[in-house]
Design brief:
two-stranded parallel ribbon, 293 residues, Rossmann fold, globular, 10 helices, alpha/beta
Amino acid sequence: MRVLLTGASGFVGRHLHRALADRGDDVFAIDLRPTPRVQAGDALDFFRHDDTPFDLAIHCAAIVGGRASIDGSPLGVATNLALDSWYMRWLIRTGTPRAVYFSSSAAYPVALQQPGDVRRLYEEDINLQYMDEPDATYGWAKLTGEKLATYAEAEGCRILIPRPFSGYGEDQEPCYPFPAFIQRAKRRDDPFEIWGDGSSTRDWIHVDDLVGATLALLDADVTGPVNLGWGRATTFDDLANIVTATAGYRPQYKHRHDAPQGVHHRVSDPSRMLNHYVPTITLEEGVRRALSS
Protein backbone atom coordinates (compact mmCIF):
# COMPACT_ATOMS: atom_id res chain seq x y z
CA MET A 1 0.00 0.00 0.00
CA ARG A 2 0.92 3.63 -0.41
CA VAL A 3 0.99 4.89 3.20
CA LEU A 4 1.30 8.37 4.71
CA LEU A 5 2.91 8.34 8.16
CA THR A 6 3.19 11.58 10.14
CA GLY A 7 5.30 11.92 13.27
CA ALA A 8 7.54 9.23 11.83
CA SER A 9 10.54 10.12 14.00
CA GLY A 10 8.55 9.88 17.24
CA PHE A 11 8.45 6.85 19.53
CA VAL A 12 5.43 5.09 18.04
CA GLY A 13 6.00 6.55 14.57
CA ARG A 14 9.50 5.17 14.08
CA HIS A 15 8.43 1.68 15.18
CA LEU A 16 5.44 1.80 12.85
CA HIS A 17 7.67 3.01 10.04
CA ARG A 18 9.98 0.03 10.44
CA ALA A 19 7.09 -2.45 10.60
CA LEU A 20 5.34 -1.00 7.55
CA ALA A 21 8.57 -1.08 5.53
CA ASP A 22 9.18 -4.69 6.59
CA ARG A 23 5.71 -5.55 5.22
CA GLY A 24 6.64 -4.05 1.86
CA ASP A 25 4.42 -0.97 2.08
CA ASP A 26 5.50 2.19 0.26
CA VAL A 27 5.74 4.67 3.14
CA PHE A 28 5.90 8.44 2.77
CA ALA A 29 7.13 9.42 6.23
CA ILE A 30 7.31 13.02 7.46
CA ASP A 31 8.39 14.65 10.71
CA LEU A 32 9.81 17.93 11.94
CA ARG A 33 12.94 15.88 12.77
CA PRO A 34 14.10 14.35 9.47
CA THR A 35 16.28 11.27 9.17
CA PRO A 36 17.66 9.48 6.10
CA ARG A 37 14.32 7.61 5.87
CA VAL A 38 12.02 10.45 7.00
CA GLN A 39 11.23 13.59 5.01
CA ALA A 40 11.44 16.96 6.73
CA GLY A 41 7.93 18.29 6.96
CA ASP A 42 5.32 19.90 9.15
CA ALA A 43 2.23 17.68 9.24
CA LEU A 44 0.00 20.72 9.72
CA ASP A 45 1.28 22.33 6.52
CA PHE A 46 1.01 19.00 4.69
CA PHE A 47 -2.64 18.50 5.68
CA ARG A 48 -3.50 22.07 4.68
CA HIS A 49 -1.87 22.11 1.25
CA ASP A 50 -1.07 18.61 -0.09
CA ASP A 51 -3.52 16.57 -2.18
CA THR A 52 -1.42 13.45 -2.80
CA PRO A 53 -3.56 10.27 -2.82
CA PHE A 54 -2.72 7.47 -0.37
CA ASP A 55 -4.26 4.08 0.36
CA LEU A 56 -3.76 4.51 4.11
CA ALA A 57 -2.90 7.39 6.41
CA ILE A 58 -1.49 6.99 9.93
CA HIS A 59 -1.30 10.17 11.98
CA CYS A 60 1.24 10.08 14.84
CA ALA A 61 2.30 13.74 14.85
CA ALA A 62 1.49 15.42 18.18
CA ILE A 63 2.97 17.31 21.10
CA VAL A 64 3.61 14.70 23.80
CA GLY A 65 5.98 14.34 26.70
CA GLY A 66 4.72 12.35 29.66
CA ARG A 67 2.88 13.46 32.77
CA ALA A 68 5.06 16.49 33.44
CA SER A 69 4.27 17.82 29.97
CA ILE A 70 0.55 17.02 30.24
CA ASP A 71 0.25 18.85 33.55
CA GLY A 72 2.84 21.55 32.89
CA SER A 73 2.02 22.59 29.30
CA PRO A 74 -1.77 22.55 29.04
CA LEU A 75 -1.87 24.92 26.06
CA GLY A 76 0.09 22.45 23.95
CA VAL A 77 -3.37 21.04 23.30
CA ALA A 78 -4.00 23.85 20.80
CA THR A 79 -1.38 22.49 18.40
CA ASN A 80 -2.73 18.95 18.71
CA LEU A 81 -6.28 20.16 18.03
CA ALA A 82 -5.09 21.97 14.91
CA LEU A 83 -3.19 18.91 13.68
CA ASP A 84 -6.13 16.60 14.22
CA SER A 85 -8.76 18.87 12.69
CA TRP A 86 -6.69 19.46 9.56
CA TYR A 87 -5.95 15.71 9.37
CA MET A 88 -9.67 14.98 9.20
CA ARG A 89 -10.18 17.70 6.59
CA TRP A 90 -7.33 16.24 4.55
CA LEU A 91 -8.84 12.74 4.73
CA ILE A 92 -12.14 14.06 3.40
CA ARG A 93 -10.57 16.33 0.75
CA THR A 94 -8.33 13.62 -0.69
CA GLY A 95 -10.85 10.79 -0.40
CA THR A 96 -8.40 8.67 1.59
CA PRO A 97 -10.23 5.35 2.11
CA ARG A 98 -8.48 4.08 5.27
CA ALA A 99 -6.92 5.88 8.22
CA VAL A 100 -5.62 5.54 11.76
CA TYR A 101 -6.18 8.14 14.45
CA PHE A 102 -4.22 7.42 17.62
CA SER A 103 -6.26 8.35 20.64
CA SER A 104 -5.19 7.61 24.22
CA SER A 105 -6.28 6.11 27.51
CA ALA A 106 -6.19 9.73 28.71
CA ALA A 107 -9.54 10.16 26.95
CA TYR A 108 -11.33 8.02 29.55
CA PRO A 109 -13.34 9.76 32.30
CA VAL A 110 -11.24 10.51 35.36
CA ALA A 111 -14.30 9.68 37.47
CA LEU A 112 -13.76 6.02 36.57
CA GLN A 113 -10.08 6.06 37.64
CA GLN A 114 -10.21 7.13 41.28
CA PRO A 115 -8.82 5.52 44.47
CA GLY A 116 -10.92 2.49 45.33
CA ASP A 117 -11.70 1.72 41.68
CA VAL A 118 -10.52 -1.67 40.45
CA ARG A 119 -12.55 -1.80 37.25
CA ARG A 120 -11.20 -2.14 33.74
CA LEU A 121 -11.99 0.53 31.17
CA TYR A 122 -14.13 -0.50 28.20
CA GLU A 123 -14.32 1.28 24.85
CA GLU A 124 -18.00 2.03 25.58
CA ASP A 125 -17.03 3.99 28.71
CA ILE A 126 -16.51 6.95 26.39
CA ASN A 127 -19.71 8.51 25.09
CA LEU A 128 -18.93 11.07 22.40
CA GLN A 129 -22.46 12.48 22.64
CA TYR A 130 -22.11 13.27 26.35
CA MET A 131 -18.41 13.53 27.10
CA ASP A 132 -17.25 13.23 30.70
CA GLU A 133 -14.13 14.92 32.10
CA PRO A 134 -11.01 13.18 30.70
CA ASP A 135 -7.40 13.42 31.90
CA ALA A 136 -6.30 17.05 31.51
CA THR A 137 -6.31 19.03 28.27
CA TYR A 138 -4.44 16.20 26.55
CA GLY A 139 -7.45 13.97 27.17
CA TRP A 140 -9.80 16.66 25.83
CA ALA A 141 -7.70 16.88 22.66
CA LYS A 142 -8.00 13.13 22.12
CA LEU A 143 -11.73 13.16 22.80
CA THR A 144 -12.14 15.99 20.31
CA GLY A 145 -10.07 14.09 17.75
CA GLU A 146 -12.31 11.05 18.16
CA LYS A 147 -15.37 13.25 17.69
CA LEU A 148 -13.87 14.79 14.54
CA ALA A 149 -13.16 11.29 13.24
CA THR A 150 -16.91 10.58 13.19
CA TYR A 151 -17.34 13.37 10.62
CA ALA A 152 -14.57 11.97 8.40
CA GLU A 153 -16.14 8.52 8.71
CA ALA A 154 -19.48 9.96 7.59
CA GLU A 155 -17.69 11.08 4.41
CA GLY A 156 -16.51 7.55 3.68
CA CYS A 157 -13.13 7.17 5.38
CA ARG A 158 -12.81 4.01 7.50
CA ILE A 159 -10.91 5.03 10.64
CA LEU A 160 -9.28 2.79 13.23
CA ILE A 161 -8.90 4.51 16.62
CA PRO A 162 -6.34 2.72 18.82
CA ARG A 163 -6.45 3.77 22.48
CA PRO A 164 -3.01 2.77 23.81
CA PHE A 165 -2.61 2.51 27.54
CA SER A 166 0.93 2.87 28.93
CA GLY A 167 3.15 2.21 25.94
CA TYR A 168 6.85 1.72 26.60
CA GLY A 169 10.06 0.43 25.02
CA GLU A 170 13.81 0.44 25.15
CA ASP A 171 14.22 3.60 23.06
CA GLN A 172 11.51 5.73 24.69
CA GLU A 173 12.36 9.27 25.77
CA PRO A 174 13.37 9.51 29.47
CA CYS A 175 10.55 11.95 30.31
CA TYR A 176 8.22 8.92 30.56
CA PRO A 177 7.99 6.75 33.70
CA PHE A 178 9.29 3.45 32.27
CA PRO A 179 12.59 4.75 30.82
CA ALA A 180 13.05 6.97 33.88
CA PHE A 181 12.82 3.88 36.11
CA ILE A 182 15.25 2.02 33.84
CA GLN A 183 17.78 4.87 34.00
CA ARG A 184 17.56 4.97 37.81
CA ALA A 185 18.15 1.24 38.00
CA LYS A 186 21.11 1.39 35.62
CA ARG A 187 22.63 4.07 37.88
CA ARG A 188 21.64 1.93 40.88
CA ASP A 189 19.96 4.91 42.51
CA ASP A 190 19.39 4.46 46.23
CA PRO A 191 17.00 5.88 47.26
CA PHE A 192 14.95 5.13 44.13
CA GLU A 193 12.55 7.98 43.31
CA ILE A 194 8.88 7.27 42.55
CA TRP A 195 6.37 10.01 41.78
CA GLY A 196 3.32 9.79 44.05
CA ASP A 197 2.77 7.26 46.81
CA GLY A 198 3.53 4.26 44.58
CA SER A 199 0.03 2.79 44.68
CA SER A 200 -1.28 4.21 41.39
CA THR A 201 -1.73 1.58 38.68
CA ARG A 202 -1.05 1.48 34.96
CA ASP A 203 -1.49 -1.07 32.18
CA TRP A 204 1.82 -1.44 30.32
CA ILE A 205 2.13 -2.55 26.69
CA HIS A 206 5.42 -2.81 24.79
CA VAL A 207 5.69 -0.70 21.66
CA ASP A 208 6.27 -3.81 19.51
CA ASP A 209 2.90 -5.15 20.67
CA LEU A 210 1.29 -1.73 20.23
CA VAL A 211 2.47 -1.68 16.61
CA GLY A 212 1.63 -5.34 16.05
CA ALA A 213 -1.90 -4.84 17.34
CA THR A 214 -2.44 -1.75 15.19
CA LEU A 215 -1.39 -3.55 12.00
CA ALA A 216 -3.41 -6.66 12.87
CA LEU A 217 -6.50 -4.52 13.42
CA LEU A 218 -5.93 -2.79 10.09
CA ASP A 219 -5.54 -6.14 8.35
CA ALA A 220 -8.85 -7.25 9.89
CA ASP A 221 -10.49 -4.01 8.66
CA VAL A 222 -11.49 -3.02 12.20
CA THR A 223 -12.79 0.51 12.68
CA GLY A 224 -13.60 2.59 15.71
CA PRO A 225 -11.94 2.57 19.14
CA VAL A 226 -9.87 -0.36 20.38
CA ASN A 227 -8.00 -0.54 23.70
CA LEU A 228 -4.35 -1.55 23.42
CA GLY A 229 -3.13 -3.07 26.67
CA TRP A 230 -2.71 -6.26 28.68
CA GLY A 231 -5.46 -5.65 31.22
CA ARG A 232 -2.86 -6.08 33.96
CA ALA A 233 -2.85 -3.58 36.83
CA THR A 234 0.72 -2.74 37.89
CA THR A 235 1.41 -0.20 40.62
CA PHE A 236 4.42 2.06 40.34
CA ASP A 237 5.85 0.31 43.39
CA ASP A 238 5.34 -2.99 41.53
CA LEU A 239 7.16 -1.60 38.51
CA ALA A 240 10.03 -0.41 40.72
CA ASN A 241 10.19 -3.88 42.32
CA ILE A 242 10.43 -5.57 38.90
CA VAL A 243 13.02 -3.11 37.57
CA THR A 244 15.30 -3.13 40.61
CA ALA A 245 15.07 -6.91 41.13
CA THR A 246 15.98 -7.47 37.48
CA ALA A 247 18.87 -5.03 37.91
CA GLY A 248 20.02 -7.05 40.94
CA TYR A 249 19.59 -4.67 43.85
CA ARG A 250 17.02 -3.54 46.43
CA PRO A 251 17.06 0.18 47.14
CA GLN A 252 14.92 2.22 49.48
CA TYR A 253 12.05 4.01 47.75
CA LYS A 254 11.62 7.78 47.91
CA HIS A 255 8.01 8.70 47.15
CA ARG A 256 7.60 12.19 45.70
CA HIS A 257 4.16 13.31 46.82
CA ASP A 258 4.74 16.78 45.31
CA ALA A 259 5.33 15.43 41.78
CA PRO A 260 2.66 15.05 39.04
CA GLN A 261 1.07 11.60 39.20
CA GLY A 262 -2.16 11.59 37.19
CA VAL A 263 -5.17 9.38 37.81
CA HIS A 264 -5.05 6.58 40.36
CA HIS A 265 -6.19 3.43 38.50
CA ARG A 266 -5.96 3.04 34.71
CA VAL A 267 -6.33 -0.49 33.33
CA SER A 268 -7.86 -1.62 30.04
CA ASP A 269 -10.28 -4.30 29.08
CA PRO A 270 -8.40 -5.57 25.98
CA SER A 271 -11.08 -8.01 24.76
CA ARG A 272 -11.68 -6.21 21.46
CA MET A 273 -7.97 -6.24 20.64
CA LEU A 274 -7.62 -9.89 21.69
CA ASN A 275 -10.07 -10.90 18.97
CA HIS A 276 -7.33 -10.02 16.47
CA TYR A 277 -4.01 -9.79 18.32
CA VAL A 278 -2.49 -11.27 21.49
CA PRO A 279 0.49 -9.36 22.94
CA THR A 280 3.66 -11.37 23.47
CA ILE A 281 6.10 -9.17 25.40
CA THR A 282 5.41 -9.27 29.13
CA LEU A 283 6.40 -6.36 31.35
CA GLU A 284 9.15 -8.51 32.88
CA GLU A 285 10.58 -9.26 29.42
CA GLY A 286 10.32 -5.59 28.48
CA VAL A 287 12.27 -4.64 31.59
CA ARG A 288 14.99 -7.19 30.77
CA ARG A 289 15.29 -5.84 27.24
CA ALA A 290 15.53 -2.24 28.43
CA LEU A 291 18.14 -2.96 31.11
CA SER A 292 20.32 -4.82 28.61
CA SER A 293 20.04 -2.21 25.86
